[in-house]
Amino acid sequence: MPIIQEVRGKNPAFGRDCFIAENATIVGDVVMGDECSIWFNAVIRGDVHHIRMGNRVNVQDGAIIHCTYLKAPTEIGDNVTIAHNAIVHGCTLQDNVLVGMGSIIMDDCVVGSNSIIAAGAVLTKGTIVPPGSVYAGMPARKIKDISPELSRGEIERIAAAYVKYASWLLEEALQVNINGKPFTLSMRTPGDDEELVRGLLHSEAIVNEPTFHPELILRKENEQGVVTAVDMEIPENYLGSGYSNSRSLLSVSSCGICGKTELGDPGFTGKGLEASVKFTAASFTRMFLQMNQRQHDFRQSGGTHAAAVFTADGELMAAREDIGRHNAVDKVVGRLLLDGNLSQAKAMTVSGRISYEITIKAFKAGIPFLAAVSAPSSLAVDYAKEFGITLLGFCREGRATCYAHPYRVQKDEVRNQTPKAS
Length: 422
Prior knowledge:
8 helices, elongated, about 425 residues, alpha/beta, 11-stranded parallel β-sheet
């Protein structure tokens, strides 16, 4: 959660539709307008004087906004972008200003509207930047004029882009009702909701027929047009054992499904997966490359997870992103179910670590290979051994560590390991 803290009786105040990253810090007398985005590790300290921010201000990763005690507040206009690791201190930034990466703006500076401060520039105390100027260097000097139309267009484009990027990281609740009764509340990145719900119904054994796809009926939207509740009707003959268990599920982006009747209840009966297909560790390097090329949200925000599924020949079938890694898995499985080709899926790659729940989802989807760039949990390893899933971690640079069923992996550069309990 972000740190949002009172200082000397002053609390930060926010306009509508603002995005605050989970590890940003905002304290004291800070007031920001609408559609602002405060990104990862950014710090805004209104502890010794006030900070005022207009609409659509974008404070990128690692940037710092501060002021000087009793002398120099910080005033920021509309459509201002403060890029990665920049420092803005006790100054005024008028409308449509771009502050480049790693630049520093000191006390009592005034940056006129439609201006650009180049990356790495240092504006010393009291510098006045005329409107429509480009400043660069240490100390910064004017290097050229820029037309108001050009600067305003570019700066407004960046501001609008970051409003969009922030929307990708919104964590919104989706209430799913089945046959008129609440079934689950899923915290997810909005979008691809039909895939998300269909994948969840499959992994939780709610629907017992892969070819049956219940229609999602929109029941509610919020003010931004994001779907917040859907209804569906599932005939009794299509309801699986997961529904009859009547579990109340809460799906949150950090840890997946909570509210199971017991931790050791994956719904597994029978034997594990069997597969004749084999892959080399280098095959997974190529798979991860294909998945990474489709992580558009992650490249812009650094805050989403991804999952991808491949055929026995290593061909990409589908890839999806979400703020929760388990949601990304449900979305990609749901996509294959809707396309009718889930049986062709033989390998799944995921970003981050592998939890026991993702191992269960891979098993329910009939996917015998599961790989991640990081380590699996000890429980994920236990389930993979039971379910017949070849589980690989640390898939990097043509190498991997195999934790379960290594006989399916051709042994070039593969390390066999059983992890310690975590």
